[in-house]
Amino acid sequence: MQLVSNSLAGRRRISQSELDLLVSAHERFLSGRSGGKRASLRFMDMSGLELSGRNLCDADLSASVLDGARMLRTRLDRASLFGSDLRKAVMIQASLVRADLRGVCLHGANLTQADLTQADFREGQIAIPHPRKGLDSLKHEDRAGDADGALFVGATLDGSRMNGLSAFASDFTDCSLRGAVMTGANLKEANMAGANLEGAQVSGCNLEGADLSGAVLSGVEVGLARTSGCRMAGVLLSPTAEELALAPQRLEAAMGNQAWCESGGQRGAPARLDHADLRTLGGRLRGMRLTAISAKGACMVGMDLSGVQLQGANLDGADLRGADLHGADLRGAKLAGANLTKADLRGAMVGVLPLTPERSSPATLNLARMRYTRAQAADLSAAILDGADLRGADLTGAKVVRTSFRDADIGSAIGLET
């Protein structure tokens, strides 16, 4: 496939009103309504236009110019943006799942919290028009994607193909890059602090001068990348052989905790797994009854804990980044100082635990790190989130009756009135 380069040569300038009509027809097409027509927006100049909140899934925007366009929360799943110019575009919380971004220019674009799962950033063959003859005379060259200086803060790039992508000095803070293919990518001086690169392929990747402080590097062969001057303080590596050997013992303790719950305290006992690396248990704790468990400072990064019962659990200081806790019961749980960045708390119960007719215990999440946490429809009634970092968290539909947010950072949280 060959597309014209990112200059304005050969592009037709489109107005906002014409674009709105084309997008509306595309949205009718997607929903199966009459008058619908799939959008073909190839070779268009849409610089600076407004597309926020629109649905352009499966649309063709190949080789178009969207320099400075506004696409907040725009849906572009499976869309073709092959060879397009998106420099300085504002794409906060946009969805680009499996989008074709080969040869794209994202220089200085803002993709904070965007979903780029399985997006394709690989090299594309670009057609360059003659400066005077335009499209009548073309030459071709292979061009890598350009995301230099782009913002991917809190974004999801799991399984994305970033082979050869240039992302010099880009910001990937707290983003998820699990299983991403980054071979030969230029990430020199990029900020990847707190990012989850579990299982990412980094062979030949330039990470010189990059900040990987606190990043998750389990399953990553960092030695295959160029890392001169790279900051790696506090990185989380794969579980040690010692931790793996302790997995059966820890699972037995968890099962004893469940037996204690099921027998009303007649059998088993609450588990004590403080500071343990529980990643070795995989998804075996899903749906278990772990009331009153103590796992202070435990590592549970990326674990499937969906539906687990953790009433009154002590999880102070636990690392729960990217953990799946949707539908979990965390009433009365202690999560002070815990790291819940990009954790899934959708529909979770994180409120008050009744103890007796006169006594109850609220969930405590003071000073918890909850950046980009998904907590839609969660019950946070009377929970204590004093001093918590909720930047980018989504609490749409969450119950926050009598919830304490004293000194919490909720400036960019979704679903909360400031």
Please give a structural write-up.
With 418 residues, this protein is largely without helices or strands. The chain has a domain of 179 residues: Pectate Lyase C-like (3 Solenoid), CATH 2.160.20. It contains three helices and seven strands, in the order E-E-H-E-E-E-H-H-E-E. It has a three-stranded mixed beta sheet, with no helix packed on it. A two-stranded parallel sheet has the order 2-3. A two-stranded antiparallel sheet has the order 6-7. Strand 2, helix 1 and strand 3 form a beta-alpha-beta unit. The N terminus is likely disordered.
Oligomer: single chain
Predict the CATH topology of one domain: Pectate Lyase C-like
Gyration radius, in Å: 24 Å
- Number of distinct beta strands: 7
CATH architecture label name of one domain: 3 Solenoid
The overall pLDDT average reads 93
The fraction of residues in strands falls at 5-15%
Query: Gap between N and C termini, in Å?
Result: 49 Å
Percent of residues in helical segments? under 10%
Query: Unreliable runs, pLDDT <50, ≥5 residues?
Result: 1-6
Structural class, by secondary structure, is little secondary structure
Main-sheet strand order equals 1-4-5
The general outline is: globular
Order of helices and strands: EEHEEEHHEE
Main pleated-sheet profile: 3 strands, mixed
* CATH top-level class of one domain: Mainly Beta
Number of helices: 3
